Amino acid sequence: MNRLAMKKEIRERVLVLAQRDKADWREAEQLRRQFVSDYPISKIINLSLDEYVIGKGSANKSFCYRLERELDSLGRILGATAFKFGIYFGKTKNDSRYKYRFAKHWGQTEKEVFASVKNEIASLLKAASAGNYDEVRVNKLSPMFKGKLLFIYFPNKFTPIYAKDHLKYFLAQLNLRGNFTNETDMQVALMEYRSQWQELENEHPCLYMKFLYDVFGYPSSASSTEESRVADVPLLDDAIKGAKFIDKIPKGNSRKAPKNGASGNKTNYDKRQKRLKQIGDRGEEIVLAMEKQRLKNANVRGLASKVKHVALTDDSAGFDILSFDEDGTKRYIEVKATTGETLNNGFYISANEATQANILDKYYIYFVLSAMSDRPRVMPVPNPFGTQSKFELTPIIFHANLKQDG
Questions:
Q1: Tens of pLDDT along 51-61?
Q2: For residue 375, which of 13, 43, 280, 350 sits 20 to 30 Å off, Cα-Cα?
Q3: Kind of pairing, strands 321-324 and 330-337?
Q4: Using CA atoms, how far apart are residues 215 and 227, in angstroms rounded to an integer?
Q5: For 83-105, how does the pLDDT look when each residue is reduced to its tens digit (9 = 90+)?
């Protein structure tokens, strides 16, 4: 999602969410502060086993019970196996006896395991406090448990989203760059994005979590084939690594292009427009990266640094990206992206884009095929509507003005 679209979403949603859930955020923050006050790092080291473990019933307000149940509104980890805590009290599917159970990689006895887990928790919180993210990354606590601890103790550094598939989903939807190999880096990246928006910074971090789900939905919420393709988007860096320039559009079976709003249902039309915007944004990010790399490969790094994503802040220019030829001549690029592998359905172009294509020298259309995959294919087409054009423009919409009397 580009900045223009995000600004619109923030304007329309943040105030509504803040007013609607203000009491909930206030209560959640009080619970968080109380938990941190009750369990400073020095006290965690000295906890007894029963003060720590979950499974002794709701009357036993243990460290793990409160973290999972009482602080559920601060990001859910409920549902994952209790082994995530290292040690717990309970039964398994194959053994109905209630007893202390633990993951063997922590040790061979209850005492040994519990000591190891407490030390790991303390090490995690100390490393995060010092900003030592290398130690945070290699910490041996389970990812969901680690993620929630990091947010509870450092709510302005780590996002209250802990599941890897959810973190990856939002990073992909926002088209954030980075080599994200673990949940910690993903949490930090999402919070760094939040810091770019004062409206989000001014509100509780959980509002940011709510905002992301409100805008993009859940990774598993897509039901139709088309929606699923858009929802299951690879990380932007993975898509860029797999992207290649091509000089010929692959042939495929022709089929009738879908009509905008064909169902006549406004909700479906809005969803479709949103999906198309996501595809377009992803295509622009891919082309932007590939253009910079093309110029770097040509040993004109100075020009590569000047490549500008115009559509990020101006959607009226008639092109999306300002790039350059190797000699410094400006190259105006309009990006057309599709999830398909061909252009058999054609593409849409605005009157402004068509006009700019005819008046600007070095106007290109870059077609991005399979844009939402990890192997996009990009075909640059110079002077797309010139005398040698292979495209036929068909008017499909008109603007009507009311006639003046007389």
A1: 999 999 888 99
A2: 350
A3: antiparallel
A4: 15
A5: 999 999 999 888 999 999 998 89
